[in-house]
């Protein structure tokens, strides 16, 4: 009984931290969109590992899947950016919108490889 309670508490702590790490990354992505401008930002698609401190990240050094659990010693923060119709039709609703990117951000942690998944859209006009 005590072990189950400890496991549940550890899961809750890990999920809270993963959610926080995901929220920080989504905000960083929004700042990147504003600082780069839509034309340059919307050309960034594919998989990216956001395990380093967000303040030091550079898109050119991020491509690919996260291979280690080196975010806070326990987590991985994996980003996928995909363009256009897939985003507009499944995540944002409505028809095809050629000024949208679908953001899939997965923060996972080592215990049983659990994860928090955040799927959202960002477009030319969103804040």
Task: Give a quick precis of the structure.
With 127 residues, this protein is of the alpha+beta class. It has helices spanning 2-36, 38-41, 85-91, and strands spanning 46-49, 75-83, 100-109, 114-123. The chain starts with a helix and ends with a strand.
Task: Give the helices and strands, then pairings.
Layout: H1 2-36, H2 38-41, E1 46-49, E2 75-83, H3 85-91, E3 100-109, E4 114-123
Antiparallel strand pairs: 1-2, 2-3, 3-4
Structural notes for this entry:
This protein has 127 residues and is of the alpha+beta class. It has one domain. The chain has three helices and four strands; from the N terminus they run ααββαββ. The protein has helices spanning 2-36, 38-41, 85-91; strands spanning 46-49, 75-83, 100-109, 114-123. The protein has a four-stranded antiparallel β-sheet. β3 and β4 form a beta hairpin. It is elongated. The model has no long low-confidence stretch (mean pLDDT 81).
Shape: elongated
Structural class: alpha+beta
Give the strand tally: 4
Which series of helices and strands comes N to C? HHEEHEE
Biggest β-sheet: strands ordered side by side in the sheet: 1-2-3-4
Helix content: 25-40%
Name a few traits of the molecule.
elongated; 3 helices; alpha+beta; 127 residues
């Amino acid at each position: 009984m005590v072990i189950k309670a400890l496991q549940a508490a550890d899961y809750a702590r890990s999920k809270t931290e993963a959610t926080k790490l995901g929220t920080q990354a989504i905000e960083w992505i929004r700042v990147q969109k504003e600082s780069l401008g839509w034309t340059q930002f919307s050309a960034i698609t594919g998989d990216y590992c956001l395990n380093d401190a967000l303040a030091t990240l550079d898109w050119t050094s991020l491509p690919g899947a996260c291979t280690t659990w080196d975010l806070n010693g326990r987590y991985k923060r994996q980003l996928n950016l995909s363009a256009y119709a897939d985003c507009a039709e499944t995540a944002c609703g409505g028809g095809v919108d050629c000024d949208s990117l679908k953001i899939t951000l997965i923060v996972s942690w080592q215990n049983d490889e659990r994860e928090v998944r955040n799927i959202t859209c960002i477009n030319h006009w969103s804040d």
